[in-house]
Amino acid sequence: MHLSPGHRLGPYEIISPLGAGGMGEVYRARDTRLGRDVAIKILPQHLSSNAEVRARFEREAKTVSSLNHPNICTLFDVGREGDTDFLVMELIEGETLATRLSKGALPLADTLRIGGQIADALDRAHRAGVVHRDLKPGNVMLTKSGAKLMDFGLARAVGLGGASGLSTGVTVGALTQSPTVAQPLTAEGTIIGTFQYMSPEQLEGKESDARSDVWAFGCVLYEMATGKRAFDGKSQASLITSIMGSQPAPISAISTMSPPAFDKLVSAMLAKDAADRVQSAHDVKLQLQWIAEGGSATGAPAIATHRTRKMAWLPWAVAALAIAAAVMFAMRGKITVDSEHPVHAAITPPPGVLFSSSTDKPLPLAISPDGSMIAFCARTGEGPDMLWIRSVDAMDARAIPGTEGAQGPFFSPDGKSIGFFTRDRMKTVNTTGGAVIELVNRVDARGGTWNADGNIVFGDGTNHPLKMVRQDGGKPEQVSALDSTRQESTHRYPWFLPDGKHFLYLARRSGAGKGIEPTIFVGELGSNKRTQVVEVASNVQYASGYILYVREGVLVAQHFNPKTFAVSGPALPLIDDVRFDERFSRGVFSISSNGVLVCMTGKNQTRTQLAWLDRKGTMIAKVGDPADYTYGGTPELSSDDTQSVMPIGNRERGTSDVWIVDLGSGRRRRLTVDQDDHPAAIWAPHGGVIVATSTGTNKPRMGIVSPDGVLERTIPVYANFVWPRTASPDGSVVLVAANTTTTAIADINAISTLGDTTRTVVAGGDGSQDCPQFSPDGKFFAYHSEESGRYEIYVATYPSGGRWQVSQDGGTEARWGGDGRELFFVDRNNYVNAVEVTLRPGAFDAGPSTRLFQLHGTGGGWRYDVTRDGARFLVTQPLPQDLALPVTIITDWTRLVDKR
């Protein structure tokens, strides 16, 4: 159809035509509401008439509209006026890449710059689950501000019913109508895309994924560098034959100034088998950046020099793309270690798998001592976190049954077994699967290490020294001693040295604030003697004559003598953006004994999103921008459900501050403004806030703070670590979980807020108790206890009297509905459950529990709160793109530092 100037489609007034193609006509239009010019694409009538296609199109268009990226054309709106369906898009001024290529090849610098922008846009979309499926020069606009990808992710939406995109009944004759498929797009089960840029799997009728976009991108890069198409033919039949069976001429044979590394990259992107192809746009982006920085002149390892924070960067090599192209790429890919050059490459999780969101727990990955296997924690879809194992040189990433809730893996010295933690347990399992053996049943994991004599040393919580247990079980024993003169309150992240008797570890004060300098020591089994190594707040590992640790956000290597325990020479930077958690003093890296390094990168990956969910777990709305809610980020709703009080981490300072969040606007207001650490806060009756200060002063404190941030009065604290969990309706009492001894066992205490020193143990005994919550009438409280051997939910009368078990198969984090008739908790598989309850004087009844949805958020106590009517849940959720970030592998990393 043709629209005349002045024609209205809802609030949009047509100004002039811009172009037309198989996907519809495009017009310049005026948005009369916002007073801006937009581009409107009219969809062909044959697409609009198919209700199923139209519904799918609208669903996928909503996903595409969320792709907020400077190199992606923004989709503003999807509309329907009468029988006309249309898209409203950002109006972009410039020329298409196809128009530019009609004038010839681009200079190498422009090819790398524009290519990097396209790669970044593809990477952003792929992480959101959106695949372009029709990437070509005509869908790339060149503007003053950079490249813009058009028609992103819409090809499939307007396409076809079949999953494959090509039915067996399609003939070559039906596919020869146009280089850009027009009419064939209208039929159920036909090819989507433009033939010159379509991957072999698309032509074979297989499901296309992100790797199909990588193929098309390779074709585009080839054309940008040479001015010629990678594949061509006199007919579409001969074109398809070329794509399926031939290789394009080397770029360097056409463009003699093109570096070999770029040639090899594009060649790897155009591998016929998708499994052999570069697996992600992220990898392409990194390689293009490397080439642009000058590492490609000869195809040899790149040398890059940078300076950050007064540190001179180590020139370190990235493998020649001849190696990198064959090396890796999704967890399904294969890694080949080259003897001449270190290999720097990235592994992404298998399709549908996300890395563990437990960012406040121990290292989520480990490499075996011989460098042949990687263990990592991840989940599939809505399943629980589990332990996965992957051989470095094979395609066998697999979950190990029975490891639900896994955290912090570490290998046995022979690499045949893996130790790991769950929420409160330490276990082992064979790498091939089989029986899971529980070694310790009460532990707050802070890393583990295993020696050849069968001893496992591990860190246990925030107020304990290191402990040791035998690999076949038994009672843990203390193997280090906290030094009170240095204000030490935690030893963590042990790492055995080669003799199996001595071990490295970090000694520091829990939380943050002024005090001792965190220090790495060498300890010794059977003795409290220790040797200071270096002052730094980081986990540490040893191999090949070096210790590796994180300083100022940079993973560094330093010469270390494992016999004298002395360091020598400077700390040599390896990776500048290794993922590091300042609060826990923990970098995400692991090394083998033969020079293989694995790590995660991304300094800002500790943010989570505050969001509203309904009872089915469907997101209703996001609240504000992502923030560091990952530790202590317990959402606490106000009595009218309009605000939340919660700590937000300051990773640069290693502390948390308490903020009040307006849940309507998403605006945040900081309540605590000192340098202390405030890891917990709850609402006090009458609008105040009860804040805990765990460190930064001589003694932990707790106090009531007014809404304008003024400390109204302090609450006496009697233990070394006290977390307020709930206040009584009249405000006279706060329930806390507190450790009053050196064990990990916590009791629930009632503390007076009225200025006296009254405190009463209201839940204690065998096992830890935590997360108490007063009922709305203040006559009962719910909490979880591990007295049965695992955490279960209990309800008790306050202050004493009856007690009833609610959960039957594990439970934590109880919350009450506003009328006291419903109780919520999280089961051991992270599902939020609802239970109808009846409260009577001195009596309690509970019905069966109903699973609502699975919870994947993180937090320091509760990960959610529920509105008074029980209809909405306020949660902290990990950002999906962060959980799909790759793992970096560097083989023979010692070669990089030995060249210094």
Tell me what you see in this structure.
The protein has 900 residues and is mainly β. Among the domains are: 1-91, 2-Layer Sandwich (Phosphorylase Kinase, domain 1); 96-264, Transferase(Phosphotransferase) domain 1 (Transferase(Phosphotransferase), domain 1, Orthogonal Bundle), CATH 1.10.510.10; 350-443, TolB, C-terminal domain (Neuraminidase). The chain is built from 14 helices and 62 strands. Strands 1-2-3-4-6-5 form a six-stranded antiparallel sheet, with helices on one face. Strands 13, 14, 15, 16 and 17 form a five-stranded antiparallel sheet that branches. Helix 4 (108-127) runs antiparallel to helix 7 and helix 10 runs antiparallel to helix 11.
Q: Which strands sit side by side, in order, in the main sheet?
A: 1-2-3-4-6-5
Structural class computed from helices and strand pairing: mainly beta
Largest sheet entry = 6 strands, antiparallel
* The CATH fourth-level homologous superfamily of the domain at 96-264: Transferase(Phosphotransferase) domain 1
Unreliable residue stretches? 155-193, 295-340
Number of strands: 62
The CATH topology annotation of the domain at 96-264 reads as Transferase(Phosphotransferase), domain 1
